[in-house]
Amino acid sequence: MPNRLAHETSPYLLQHADNPVDWWPWSAEAFDEARKRGVPVLLSVGYSSCHWCHVMAHESFEDQETADVLNAHFVNIKVDREERPDVDAVYMEAVQAATGQGGWPMTVFLTPDAEPFYFGTYFPPAPRQGMPSFRQVLEGVNSAWTDRRDEVADVAGKIVRDLAGREISYGDSQAPGEEQQAAALLGLTREYDPQRGGFGGAPKFPPSMVIEFLLRHHARTGSEGALQMAQDTCERMARGGIYDQLGGGFSRYSVDREWVVPHFEKMLYDNALLCRVYAHLWRSTGSELARRVALETADFMVRELRTNEGGFASALDADSDDGTGKHVEGAYYVWTPEQLHEVLQDDAELAAHYFGVTEEGTFEQGSSVLQLPQQDVVFDAERIDSVKQRLLGARAERPAPGRDDKVVAAWNGLAIAALAETGAYFDRPDLVEAAVGAADLLVRLHMDDHARLARTSKDGQVGANAGVLEDYADVAEGFLALASVTGEGVWLEFAGFLLDHVLARFVDPESGALFDTAADAEALIRRPQDPTDNAAPAGWTAAAGALLSYAAHTGAEPHRTAAERALGVVKALGPRVPRFIGWGLAVAEAFLDGPKEVAIVGPSLDDEATKALHRTALLGTAPGAVVAVGAPGSDELPLLADRPLIGGSPTAYVCRRFVCDAPVTDVAGLRARLSSSSS
Fold first, then answer.
1. Helix, strand, coil percentages in the chain from 3-state DSSP, rounded to 5
2. Which residues of the chain have pLDDT under 50?
3. Which of 9, 23, 60, 602 would bridge 650 by S-S if both were Cys, CB 3.0 to 4.6 A apart?
């Protein structure tokens, strides 16, 4: 019989709706039940495409005997971390503080007052490699709760006090200067892997936000070292197994230092960020590889993640049916030489050489992840294209990974920005249309009459959870990108509504620091607040970037001041931990450069000369530059006010804080104005 999760919309929670565990969603009623029964709470946090979440579910939560123990001695709460990032953040901070590591599934035991007292992640069904079994953990926690409850309460109280006492170094409410940005670059150089690209060791995550900083720093300063790190990392990822060589798109991370074997889940946020990074790399260098990867990744998002409502689904699972009814990680993507021969016959040997498929294999049971290891060999492009199309067709016959159809506002904002810019750069109006479709969905479904955001929706039904800071910031970022690409002022207006909420409900008026949840959000044991990036930009620095761009579009001084104050944390942390505050460093590059404001006025957006100036402006590499295009005197876009045509010709104005250089009417003149040496 289904449990309470059957009434939820989260695909992750619905995966547990038929468990014998008597699950509750996160709710006040669940904690009331724990108080009533006098038992602790088991909090289990995961997400739909999480491999080890599925493993623990199959091993423990689907097991009747384990469920009997859970139901008898605990109130059991299941949380989708993608729907409730605030709950996840608060308790993950406690897990990491207590154990020195974190991950999902996250397993935390709480008092009925939601105070944590015992932590872990995945627990196996039997003792393994020094880990106790899950049943042993349950018995130990129940024994402690029953026999030593005062001690448990003391531990829980101390943990909550320790969390409350943690402080973030805010800096001095000023943006980083040249010295701090140079120190951050030096720190990245020290952690860079020159043989393999990327930073640090295994597992290796795509450093999207850091690459954006490196590209912007190069554009502003001419640093060849910054550009080289960005280029080499992008090439190694694109040639590795972390990139889907047949269908496009990136997996979440590489389990090794060489980018060969990925953790096969594909997340919307990774692909949105990387699509934009590769498009920006092409904009900086003209790299054909960067162009191909940007377009293939954009096409992957539209083809495999777009929902019927026009938004973008959260993720594809790592696991799929291997053809025998068993769910296996990577089964959809990997190949053996025999499988290549079945599909390609005489071209199998060529494909094995091209994609690095060997008899020994690079993955499990003799299978290989496709990659492009041969850099110095010239292959027949037409023949390779035929090979790829045949393999892609054969792969489509395999059981596909499951899709988490949940639409997350923040990640859709990232996708909107990536698709809008990629479509504009490469003359792909279909990609811009896909971005507009997702933006329309967010306005229509996720924004209420007061422009407050809901975090998620599914199948056209809006979720109950309020948007957090990253939702407001990333959706505003997407809308601002759309305004620059389309010239439609409505997107600037919607971004302004969202950023007004950021100023009113997320910013500490005294320090200028930002919180991840609104002042009127549900109170947790700690109000989450984290300026460092995870797999996506921190809400704190994403908000700083959106506020800065909005100020550049409108001249709104409160927004620029808020952005500068928020960047104080980057001044403090950038030189110390640059890998983990890459987006903040990228925003600081825009602040140092102005950012530039480009106004393009012309008789019509269909006018060829106007379009040429607009495209040139969009392809400018000045960090964080904003673009407005339209008829002279348009009241939708403030940058166009008092900007006349010169000699009756379409005209470009390049400004900083609404103070402009002499206008130009030709592409070469605009390109010169946008160069890093132009002041």
1. 50, 15, 35
2. 677-679
3. 602
Bridge partners of residue 79, in order along the sequence:
45
Tokens of 538: 């921190």
CA distances from 93 to 56, 215, 397, 466 (A): 22, 32, 43, 21
Cα radius of gyration rounded to whole Å, the chain: 26
Helix (H, G, I), strand (E, B) or coil at 328: strand
Question: What's the full length of the chain, in residues?
Answer: 679
What per-residue confidence (pLDDT) applies to 678?
Answer: 45
At residue 43, the pLDDT reads 97
Report yes or no: 630 and 487 within 8 Å, Cβ to Cβ.
Answer: yes
What is the rounded CA–CA span in Å between residue 568 and residue 650? Answer: 40
pLDDT score, position 169: 66
Quote the pTM value: 0.95
* Helical residues (DSSP H) of 10-110, grouped into ranges: 11-15, 28-37, 51-56, 64-73, 85-99
Q: Are 217 and 223 in contact (CB under 8 A)?
A: yes
List strand residue ranges (DSSP E) for 116-213, in order: 116-120
- DSSP assignment letter at 119: E
CATH code of the domain made up of 179-317+404-593:
1.50.10.10
Q: Go through 279-315 and write b for each residue having 16 or more CB atoms within 10 A of its CB, e for each that does not.
A: bbbbbbbebebbbebbbbbbbbbbebbbbebbbbbbb
Q: What pLDDT is stored for residue 679 in this prediction?
A: 45
pLDDT for the residue 633 = 80
Give 440-475 pLDDT, tens digit per residue.
999 999 999 999 999 999 999 999 999 999 999 999
Closest C-alpha to 456, from 487, 495, 505, 413: 413
Specify whether the CB–CB gap between 99 and 63 falls below 8 A: no
Q: Are strands 106-110 and 266-267 parallel, antiparallel or unpaired?
A: unpaired
Where along the chain do its domains lie? 4-164, 179-317+404-593, 333-397, 597-674
SS (HEC) of 563-615: HHHHCHHHHHHCCCCHHHCHHHHHHHHHHHHCCCEEEEECCCCCCHHHHHHHH
DSSP labels, 227-288: HHHHHHHHHHHHHSTTB-TTT--B-SEESSTTS-SEE--EEHHHHHHHHHHHHHHHHHH--H
User: Helix, strand or coil for residue 407?
Assistant: strand
Contact 11, 75 (CB under 8 A): no
Looking at residue 662, its pLDDT comes to 92
CATH of domain 4-164: 3.40.30.10
Beta carbons within 8 Å of 514's beta carbon, 6+ residues apart: 469, 502, 506, 507, 508, 529, 531, 539, 540, 543, 544, 566
